[in-house]
Design brief:
The complex is a heterodimer of chains A (about 160) and B (about 230). Chain A is mainly α and about 160 residues long. Chain A has a single domain, classed as Butyryl-CoA Dehydrogenase, subunit A, domain 3, CATH 1.20.140.160. Chain A is about 70% helix and about 0% strand. Chain B is an all-alpha fold. Chain B has 2 domains: about 55 residues; about 140 residues, no CATH class. Classes of the chains: A mainly alpha (about 160), B mainly alpha (about 230). At the A-B interface, helix 2, helix 3, helix 4, helix 5 and helix 6 of A face helix 1, helix 3, helix 4, helix 6 and helix 7 of B.
Amino acid sequence: MPVHPSTHSAALSVAEEAEVVARVRAGGGARREAAGDLFRRLREPVHAVCLHVTGRRADAEFAVAEAFRAVRRGLPGFTSESRLTTWVYRLALRASFRARARGRDGVSTPLACLPAGPRLVLALFSIDGLRSGEIADILGIPEETAWSRLHAARRMLVGAQGR
Amino acid sequence: MAGCEAFEIAVEKRLHRALGEPGGALLDEHLAGCERCRTYQAAVRDSEAGIRVEASAAAADVDWERVEREIGGRFRAWPGWLAGALLAGAWMALFAWLSAPPATRPDRMLRSLPAIAIVVALVGLVAGYSSRRLVALVDRGEMLVTHRGVLAANLQWARRMKWALAALLAFFLYRAMAGESATYDPLVYFGGLSLPLAGLWAYLRHVTVPRAEREASDLGLFEGGGR
């Protein structure tokens, strides 16, 4: 079942992930194609996460490129300890923190003023199609904790926006 | 109102389509009589809409083909360990070249090739192992805690490296000014070896360490614990 580049959902199904991993293990052109398809499939949700975590558009683009470069390098050694999608988002979060530290100027997003933890939770929950269980896996915390962190983060954001 | 926090979480769950029917009915009943939770619900909807609109607008402006080209760029796709190993090899080659009188340099270089190859292989192995370990760490534990731990270790390493390089540079410069040698010119030898180290030191001092400190500060690494 090929991964269709035109569909932009936030997560791959288990079967789609297995297909990507199999193509990567086949090596050569199939590996490059699988990495390219994965990028086209996840680029928009990953970009949204990077945008909210970095707080700036230029940094978000940089973080997306860094994250998918890490994906491309790490895919052959991917050992399926977690879901492929979970791993991709975790790489994207790490890339976003590093990109934000580059300290470039630019227009800030609404979440830019929040601390890292709340920014992270709000960014992930804003992605359509990413379920709370998947978000909890990405953050490495229990699902109920993810909800209570979202609530605390939202209170902080609403407070910061003067509501 | 007491107990509103649970309903506020229920508001979030409904917005993210994770609230079942019994919970939904309870929430509606609560909202009907709680002004505070109704205000919270409106604020949640507004802020969520704002966040999503911002992301859609930003994504529409991205040149995805350019980003994809950057990802696949030949040099940027090089693993970090390979660059580190090649730099170490280049420095060793410079070391061999400058440590011989001009007439014997080609011969000295040839004789040094096995040693250079061993250094390149060793640095490549160590750096490759570290980067594989780092990729594996991405999968483990609470994301923020793991990332803070890796960042703290990297920051400590970069600071130590900065001071070690500064000490080595000071030693080389001292030897360049005061040293004597029958086989090579101390000023050229130690000065030549110092230049790449000075570049590396400046990069650590002005780029790597400040960037890691900004990231650590953003992640709350300095809060309560100092440096």
